[in-house]
Specification:
The chain is globular and about 60 Å long. It has 8 helices and 13 strands. The longest helix is centred in the first third of the chain and has 29 residues. Helices cover about 35% and strands about 30% of the residues. The protein is α/β, with parallel strands linked by helices. The strands form 2 sheets. Strands 1, 2, 3, 4, 5, 6, 7 and 8 form an 8-stranded mixed sheet that branches. Strands 9, 10, 11, 12 and 13 form a 5-stranded antiparallel sheet that branches. α1 packs parallel to α2 and α5 crosses α6. The structure holds S-adenosylmethionine. S-adenosylmethionine binds next to α1 and α2.
Length: about 280
């Protein structure tokens, strides 16, 4: 996204950054949940903008010691550095910022985790795939990609998922398997993360609600084999008095299940489960 003026960048920081931060926190939390023993001590953030994904990583991985942020726009870097100075966090404050265009970069420095959040969608898919290939080589442990939860965002995610699997990665989230994605071409796999709106945010958007739901698509690919989730909830559960309907992506494809009150083993879980959660 071209942020031509300081006003554009400030608007992004006030209005979009809280939502992309919330999405990144949700994805990193899922990575931590699925790989609880894995320590992430270094992070490479590609298309960092003001550093949103790096801020989110610091919320989830308190063991991070080294942050490298790559961003093409020097004004974003200036703003990112100035924001980082306000953080009570020495790693953020001492992060390495590299001004570079990630297109055509043959190799990136190795880090435990490589993330690209809301950036690859701004690049032609063919080039985004080359970037992911180089980024995957630089990832010691895992790679995370986050894009808007739109048909377009998911179309890119589907391509990159296939590439990462072909490169030997294991997609540990959101997918419960490594087979071809079963989503039909007129649907898209996406999730939602709620974040609070500040008074400034509400004013800038002329919004009345005190929150908003950010829709996002994502992939977490691991270099190490781990147990896949059994199934994942793909829509808001439909809750009724005596039953809950769940749309799932499972090891054997898409399915809709109905959990009834009489199913003692699963009923309590079905009452509480949310869109994006692992089932059962
Ligand atoms: C929508 S912003 C996302 C910022 C941040 N990652 C987030 O999640 O909020 C996209 C960022 O990617 C950067 N970007 C896009 N293409 C790039 C490229 N080829 N090389 C480096 N940065 C790029 C843009 O300059 C912009 O800062």
């Amino acid at each position: 996204m071209v942020m031509a003026t300081a006003a554009h960048r400030l608007a992004y920081a006030a209005v979009r950054m809280p939502a992309t931060f919330a999405a990144a926190c949700a994805v990193f939390t899922e990575l931590r949940r699925l790989m609880p023993e894995t320590r992430i001590t270094s992070l490479l953030d590609l298309g960092a903008g003001p550093g949103t994904a790096s801020w989110a990583a610091m919320e989830v991985f308190d063991e991070v010691q080294q942050l490298t942020l790559v961003e093409q726009d020097k004004e974003w870097i200036r703003m990112g550095k100035s924001l980082a100075r306000t953080a009570d966090n020495i790693v953020l404050a001492h992060a390495d910022w590299i001004q570079a265009n990630v297109r055509g970069v043959a190799s990136f420095p190795t880090h435990d985790l490589v993330v690209s959040s809301y950036a690859l969608g701004e690049i032609a898919p063919k080039v985004a795939r080359e970037i992911v290939q180089a980024a995957w080589t630089a990832a010691r442990t895992a790679m995370v990609i986050i894009e808007p939860g739109t048909m377009r965002g998911f179309a890119l995610m589907r391509l990159l998922r296939d590439d990462l699997i072909a490169l030997g990665g294991q997609v540990i989230a959101p997918c419960p398997h490594q087979d071809a994605c079963p989503m039909s071409t007129n649907d898209w796999c996406h999730f939602a993360q709620r974040s609070a709106r500040s008074a400034l945010h509400r004013r800038l958007k002329s919004g009345t609600l005190g929150y908003e739901d950010e829709k996002f698509s994502y992939i977490v690919a691991s270099k190490h084999l781990s147990q896949p989730v059994n199934a994942r909830v793909l829509r808001h559960p439909l809750r009724h008095a005596g039953h809950t309907r769940l749309r799932l992506c499972a090891g054997d494809g898409l399915q809709t299940i109905t959990v009834t009150r009489s199913d003692k083993e699963h009923w309590q879980r079905a009452r509480k489960i949310a869109w994006g959660d692992q089932w059962p």
